[in-house]
Structure formats: C-alpha cells, structure tokens
Amino acid sequence: MKNSIDAHIEFSFKGETYSLTSTIDLDRLMMLEQEFPSFHAILARDHKIDTYSYLYEVMQETEIEFKNAQGYAADYLSNGDFNQQAFMVAWQENRVLALLQPIATRELNIANIDQHPGLKNALVQAFNLGKRT
To answer: Is the dihedral angle over the CA atoms 105, 123, 88, 50 positive or is it negative?
Structure first.
C-alpha cells in the first residue's frame, strides 16, 4: 500500500487568511530524498509561495496539521502530529526487506522472511555491511 499523508496549514498574512493542504506521496519523497525536506517548503512549492518571501516566513511560524495518513504512515500519525523520524526508519527497513525477500524466496524457498527472524537479521546485517564497503 502506498504511503501518503495530508499536510494542512492555516495562517494569516496582511489581512488575508491562507488555508493550504497538500497530499504528500511519502514513498516518492523518500525515493527522491534520503530525508524529509521541510513540509513547509513542500506546501509552499505546491501553492506557489516563494520560499524567500515574508509570506513564507510567516507560514513557517505556524504548525502543520497532518491527517489522512495511508499505508504504514498511519502508524506514525497521532493527534495531527506525524513522527517523521520514526516513519523514515520504518520506511528504510521495509525497503531493505522488500529487496531481501525475493532473494530468500529464490535461494532458500522462504515465502515470508519474517517467519525466520535469525535469517532475516543475518540478511539485513549483510545488506548493511555491503552498503558500508
């Protein structure tokens, strides 16, 4: 299932009220960036607000409310707050397991690597070791 979330911000500037919402494809974002860019910057870009403007500075002073999380991103949404760091860790782990599962299936005939925690741990460690060298 696709991971996405709605980001909403509402603020006033020069007597005008702004109510901005964007649906953010978290999977796409994680594939393009290795960490989250500012959600304020994403909202600004989506709503054609210059990030070098006073409007953007006022916008940055306002909390973003998150809602309607899809996929396992929903596990990291609580009362309008989104735990970006915890989601990033989980996303990376799930990405690694998605890469390792076909190897376990092809080479060891294991349909679900989660049912073999020792092997799963060994494969993840080998994967991480390979990334460092």
So the answer is: negative
One-letter amino acid of 41: A
Could you say which residues of the chain have pLDDT below 50? none
pTM above 0.85, yes or no: no
Strand-pair category, 65-70 with 4-13: antiparallel
DSSP string, the chain: ---EEEEEEEEEETTEEEEEEEEEEHHHHHHH-SSPPPHHHHHHHHTT--TTSHHHHHHHTSPPEEEEEEGGGGGGEETTEE-HHHHHHHHHHHHHHHHHHHHHHHHH--S-GGG-HHHHHHHHHHHHHHHH-
